[in-house]
TrEMBL record:
UniProt KW Kinase keyword: no
Protein's organism: Antarctobacter heliothermus
Similarity comment text for this entry: Belongs to the Skp family.
A single GO cellular-component term on record: cytosol
Taxonomic lineage: Bacteria, Pseudomonadati, Pseudomonadota, Alphaproteobacteria, Rhodobacterales
SMART domains to which the protein is assigned, alphabetical: OmpH (SM00935)
GO biological process terms, semicolon-separated: protein stabilization
Short name of any one Pfam family annotated for the protein: OmpH
Protein name in the entry: Outer membrane protein (OmpH-like)
Region (Disordered): 181-206
Taxonomy, superkingdom: Bacteria
Gene3D superfamilies (UniProt xref): Skp domain
Length: 206
């Protein structure tokens, strides 16, 4: 299941905490109507936050490096194949077949290596998003308490929602202030497991 599908619905079920926060003032409570539900555009929060911009830039650079390497390998193999073709008329069939088979094996090996790099880059992207959600959860919990709400939904899964209950902009500003670009947060090779209060469900559109 793709990460975008698992992030389709973001649920923060903090019933006890939110109930205790009812009636408490705060910047968000003044601007968001009292409501049990808030919505957020997670993809926009990620991509527009300092954390997301850094990750996307790193992924883009790595992707360009792989593409450049692919072009170099393709040019080298094309040249090698041309040289092998030129040798065909000067070699015995069995000898040429051995060279051709070795070349085919080399092509397949390089293709597999580059495919592995591409898959690893995709996995790195997914891991960065999971890590972002983990480190951003305390911020989202804070916004939840300030609004006196009990639930945050991914806006894409909501048919209609008032703009006043959308906390995407507030989340971006708060996450940037508290986490920054999150460089240190993504260096942990064994990130913390997803917190129990956080539940992921498939995107109905998938």
């Amino acid at each position: 299941m793709q990460l975008t599908a698992r992030l389709a619905i973001l649920l923060l079920t903090l019933w006890g905490v939110a109930a205790g926060a009812q009636g408490q003032g705060g910047p968000l409570a003044e601007s968001v109507p009292t409501t049990p539900i808030l919505v957020i555009e997670f993809e926009r929060v990620f991509s527009e936050s300092a954390f997301g911009r850094r990750v996307n830039n790193e992924i883009e650079q790595a992707g360009r490096a792989i593409a450049t390497e692919n072009r170099r390998i393709e040019a080298e193999l094309t040249e090698e194949e041309r040289g092998l073709t030129d040798l065909r008329s000067t070699l015995a069939p069995d000898e040429f077949r051995k060279l051709a088979d070795a070349f085919d094996e080399k092509v397949q090996r390089l293709r597999d290596e580059q495919d592995t790099k591409a898959r690893a880059l995709g996995a790195r992207t997914d891991e960065a998003r999971r890590r972002f959600l983990t480190v951003a959860q305390p911020v989202l919990e804070g916004l939840l308490r300030e609004a006196g709400a009990t639930l945050i939904l991914e806006r894409r899964t909501v048919l209609v929602a008032a703009d006043s209950i959308d906390i995407s902009d507030r989340a971006i500003a708060r996450i940037d202030a508290q986490i920054g670009d999150g460089a240190d947060a993504t260096l942990d090779p064994t990130p913390d497991p997803m917190p129990e209060p956080l539940e992921m469900q498939p995107d109905p559109q998938e």
